[in-house]
Design a protein that fits this description.
By secondary structure, this protein is mainly beta. It has one helix and eleven strands; from the N terminus they run αβββββββββββ.
Length: 130
């Protein structure tokens, strides 16, 4: 299990690095073409549970330009007890600049219990073209 945690974290860090290093590419020497990520990508873990999350709709209380607190939906791909799946999670979250701290929980019908996890995400902002 430790190897899968490291692999998921490495994957997340590679995506974050690649998206931040994207630059405009000139096409036909006259137009700019921007490619980049916009939104949030995160990783969360719980007891025998790992998930890759993207940010969905959210409601925030904006404290200042750097801090927000709120609740949001997190469409997620997860690994639970060695099985892959997709599920929508709901989470309280705190945003500081581009970092997102969140605690998504997911309902599991089989056991009729909630699965809790804690995670860290990064918010991407597409660079504007000139």
């Amino acid at each position: 299990m430790r190897q899968s945690k490291c692999a998921m974290l490495l994957f997340f860090l590679c995506i974050a690095f690649a998206a931040n290093s994207q630059d405009s590419t000139t096409i036909n020497n006259s137009k700019k073409f921007n490619v980049g990520l916009e939104g949030m990508l995160g990783f969360s873990a719980g007891e025998n549970f790992y998930s890759m999350n993207v940010g969905g709709p959210s409601l925030f209380l904006v404290l200042n330009k750097d801090w927000k607190i709120g609740i949001g939906a997190f469409p997620s791909l997860y690994l639970l007890e060695g099985k892959l799946g997709a599920r929508l999670g709901v989470a309280p979250k705190v945003e500081y600049k581009n970092l997102v701290f969140f605690a998504p929980f997911f309902y599991r019908e089989k056991t009729e219990k909630w699965i809790w996890s804690f995670g860290l995400g990064y918010k991407f902002h597409r660079k504007k073209s000139i």
